[in-house]
Input
Amino acid sequence: MKGTSRRSAFTLVELLVVIAIIGVLIAMLLPAVQAAREAARRIHCGNNLKQIGLALQGYHEAIRSFPPGVVMDGPCCGTKTRIGWAISILPYLEMKPVFDKYNPEYYNQDPQNQDLRETFVSVYVCPAESDGGALGVPDTGPVSGLPFRRGSYRGNVGRSEVGAGGACLYMAQAGTSFCPETWRGVLHFVGKDTPFNEPESIDDVTDGTSKTLMVGEHAPTTHPGRATYWANTYGYSVATTFADGRSLLADYDACMAALNGAPSVFCKNGWKSWHANGFMTVFADGATHFLSDSLDTSILVAMATVDNGEPVESPE
Output
């Protein structure tokens, strides 16, 4: 009778050791995978903004000015709004069929523009944003409960402040703003009963196109009613820059909790994103930059104006 051989097998201790090693390897690998995914999302987001910047340059070449950030027929607030920068540049993003849905004879909030309001535009959505591009209802507006399609990017209306004289957001009725004209941004409000009647051109950007913020991320991680809605020109497609770091808090609810009685405009406006430690931007020269949310706000507000004469270096 032939001898029998014994088959080797893992002992329980060996199995547990292997499981522990695999667990350690996964724990070491996971942060690297997450970092790679975030890097890819940031690159994608920057590419979106690069396309937006080129489209704004294309619009300027054709029209000889940048588009208005928002066109209004009356004073803020409660007034229906018309075309804004994100609608204006659709043909220059090779989205003429989407642009053709817009009926300029009616306000954006009117039923005749429902199809446009609810259209998903992928280049307006940063992949880092949870539920980016979803259909949602903004917190405020002249038509309550009206759904709009979400985006991630807002046009820069300029520097703003809140003080004894009120709030200057370049949304206010003409004559009520206490901020200087030189605080305006590239894509400010234009129209009747607003501080400005004409949009900006490259020649107006005397601070330098490489030093002037044009479009940036506004994607709060909480409270989707305060997210960006690209076709909602009632303050939801543009943002303003404050010399107050609370306006850069990505968590909207945390921002509101930190106000301690200060006006909520700091949280409703400003720049914020789902990226770690900052937000993506495109400047008036078409270059994209990632700005840290710990950036000195005196530098940030200098970047927000077109001709305030602040000495500021171009972002690296």
Summary: The chain has a mean pLDDT of 86. The chain has one domain: 38-303. The first strand starts at residue 70 and ends at 72.
